[in-house]
Automatic annotation (TrEMBL):
Protein family per UniProt: Belongs to the sulfatase family.
Species in which this protein is naturally found: Phytoactinopolyspora halotolerans
UniProt-listed Pfam families: Sulfatase (PF00884)
GO molecular function, one term: metal ion binding
Regions of compositional bias (Basic and acidic residues) in chain numbering: 413-426, 461-484
This protein's name: Sulfatase-like hydrolase/transferase
Domain named Sulfatase N-terminal: residues: 5-346
Length: 484
C-alpha cells in the first residue's frame, strides 16, 4: 500500500467567513491562515447546510449531507455516525493512526466513532481542577450563547485554545507512531461564545476600526421572517446596545487571532520534524456568527454571517498540479471533507457518501460538479429551506410562506431582499423550483403537490418570546451537556 500524506484537519467553532481572506478587516491578524491560503486553495462558497455544531460535525464524520444523515439539530451523533464507515475508520483502513483533540460535540461524549484516541475539553477542565489553581476557566459568569464581551479568567497559556494546540503539538512530537501516516483533527472551541479572550488578545482590537453591524432592509419591519424575528427576540439579541456589540466584535476578533497564533504552534511542530511541506492541511469552521448583523447573534439561519464559512485546503508540496494560491467559487460543504481526505489516502469513499472530491473539483476533473448547496433548519419554531450556488440564494420559511432572495455576489452582506422585485421574479421562481425539485427527489414532507408547504404564523407575541428563553446555558459543571 502506498503511504498517504499526514493529514491535519483544523476546525474552529462559530467562525465567520469574513475573518479570513479578502473580506476580513485589514487590521485582523491571521498570519498562519493567510499563509495557508497563499499555499493552498480557498473555496470561497463554502456553506454549513444546517448552521449548528452537531450537523456540520456529523457531515465531516460521515461524508453525508444533512439530508443524508438526517441530523438537522444538535442531537446525538451516535444515532447517525456508523463507526465502521466513519472518516477515522476509513482512514484507519488505509493505514492511518487517528486522533481527535479538542471539541468534538459527540454524544455520548466519549464516543470515539472510530478514532484511535481522543482528548476533549472535559479533559482540559479536569486537568485544570486537579492542578488546584486559585482561578479556573470560565468563572466570569458569561454563558455559551451570550453576545457580551468578557475576559478570560485564566492567562493565555492556561486557556482551552492554548491547551488544544499544546496537546496537538504533543501528539505530533511524542505520541504518534512514526512508521505510519497520521490523521489529526485539531478542533478549537472558539470563537464560539463566551467571548472571553485572554490578554493580549482582549485589548488587541479595542482601538481598531471595528466594522459596524449590517442591517438588511428586511430585518427591521414587517418583511422580517417571523421565524427569524422569534429567534432573536427569545434571547433579546435585538436589545443589545451598539457599544456592547462593538466590544463583542473586538473580543471576537481577539479570539480569532488567538486561534491563529495557536495554529502557528501546530505548524511549527510539523516544521521542526520536517513534515510541514508534505502534510495535507484543511481548515474550516462548523458555522458562523451574526455578531449583531440584522439585529441578532448566534447562528441557525442560512444567511451569510451564519452559514458561510472559511474553507482552505493546502496540498502537500510534492504533489503535482496543486493549484496553490487559487480560489474555487463552486459551492462546497462539510460533506466534501471525507471524500477529499480519503482520495488523498488512496481510499475510496463509502457508497453512501454524498460529498465530492475537492481536489478533483479544483482541477476541473469532476464530470458533474455540484450546482447548489441546500440549507435546512429544523428547530421546531425556526424551520426553513434554502438553496445557493454561491452567487444567488433563495430561502423559504414555511411559517407565513415567507421568501427571501439575495444576490450574494453583489450584496454579500444581504442588505437587500430581492424576493419582491419584479426585475428578479424569474430568478426567484427558478431557484424556488430548484428547491422544490430537490426536496421532491428526497421525498420530503415539506413539498406537497409540487409546492412548498406553508404554515400559519404561530401567533406568539414579542412579550411571550422575551419571557421564554435564556441564552446563557452557563454551567460550572463541565460534564453537563449544554446543547450549544
Amino acid at each position: 500500500m502506498t503511504r498517504g500524506p499526514n493529514i491535519v484537519l483544523i476546525t474552529t467553532d462559530q467562525q465567520r467567513y469574513d475573518t479570513v481572506g479578502p473580506r476580513a478587516p485589514d487590521f485582523l491578524r491571521t498570519p498562519h491562515l493567510d499563509h495557508m491560503a497563499r499555499e493552498g486553495i480557498t473555496y470561497s462558497s463554502a456553506y454549513a447546510q444546517c448552521p449548528m455544531c452537531v450537523p456540520s460535525r456529523v457531515s465531516i464524520m460521515t461524508g453525508r449531507t444533512v439530508a443524508g444523515h438526517g441530523m438537522a439539530h444538535n442531537g446525538h451523533s451516535s444515532e447517525v455516525v456508523d463507526r465502521e464507515t466513519s472518516l477515522p475508520s476509513m482512514l484507519r483502513q488505509a493505514g492511518y493512526q487517528t486522533a481527535a483533540i479538542g471539541k468534538m460535540h459527540f454524544t455520548p461524549e466519549r464516543a470515539r466513532h472510530g478514532f484511535d484516541e481522543m482528548l476533549l475539553p472535559a479533559d482540559y477542565y479536569t486537568e485544570m481542577t486537579r492542578r488546584g489553581h486559585d482561578v479556573q476557566p470560565m468563572r466570569h459568569g458569561l454563558g455559551q450563547n451570550e453576545l457580551y464581551p468578557g475576559m478570560a479568567t485564566v492567562p493565555e497559556s492556561l486557556t482551552l485554545t492554548s491547551w488544544t494546540a499544546e496537546r496537538c503539538v504533543d501528539y505530533i512530537r511524542e505520541r504518534r507512531d512514526p512508521t505510519v501516516p497520521f490523521f489529526l483533527w485539531c478542533s478549537f472551541s472558539k470563537p464560539h461564545p463566551p467571548l472571553d479572550p485572554p490578554e493580549p488578545y482582549y485589548s488587541m482590537y479595542l482601538n481598531s476600526p471595528i466594522p459596524e453591524p449590517v442591517f438588511g432592509d428586511w430585518s427591521e419591519d414587517e418583511r422580517c421572517p417571523e421565524a427569524f424575528r422569534r429567534a432573536r427576540e427569545k434571547w433579546s439579541l435585538d436589545l443589545i446596545p451598539p457599544e456592547v456589540i462593538r466590544a463583542a466584535r473586538a473580543a471576537y476578533y481577539g479570539l480569532v487571532t488567538h486561534i491563529d497564533y495557536a495554529i502557528g504552534r501546530v505548524f511549527a511542530a510539523l516544521q521542526d520534524l520536517r513534515m510541514f511541506d508534505d502534510t495535507l492541511l484543511v481548515f474550516t469552521s462548523d458555522h458562523g456568527e451574526y455578531l449583531g448583523d440584522h439585529h441578532t447573534g448566534a447562528k441557525t439561519f442560512f444567511h451569510e454571517a451564519s452559514a458561510h464559512v472559511p474553507f482552505i485546503v493546502r496540498l502537500p508540496k510534492s504533489w503535482d498540479d496543486r493549484r496553490h494560491g487559487t480560489t474555487v467559487a463552486d459551492p462546497v460543504t462539510h460533506a466534501d471533507i471525507m471524500p477529499t481526505l480519503l482520495a488523498a489516502a488512496g481510499q475510496p469513499a463509502p457508497g453512501q457518501c454524498d460529498g465530492q472530491d475537492l481536489f478533483a473539483l479544483a482541477r476541473g476533473e469532476l464530470d458533474s460538479p455540484r450546482r447548489y448547496v441546500d440549507g435546512v433548519g429544523r428547530v421546531p419554531d425556526a424551520t426553513y429551506h434554502a438553496i445557493t450556488d454561491g452567487r444567488w440564494k433563495y430561502i423559504h420559511y414555511p411559517e407565513g410562506d415567507t421568501e427571501q432572495l439575495f444576490d450574494v455576489e453583489n450584496d454579500p452582506d444581504e442588505r437587500t431582499d430581492l424576493s419582491g422585485s419584479s426585475e428578479h421574479e424569474k430568478r426567484r421562481a427558478d431557484l424556488r423550483q430548484e428547491l422544490i425539485d430537490l426536496l421532491e427527489r428526497r421525498g420530503s414532507e415539506w413539498v406537497r403537490d409540487g409546492r412548498l408547504v406553508s404554515q400559519e404564523p404561530f401567533g406568539d407575541t414579542t412579550r411571550d418570546r422575551r419571557n421564554e428563553s435564556w441564552p446563557g446555558y452557563h454551567t460550572e459543571r463541565h460534564d453537563v451537556d449544554v446543547r450549544h
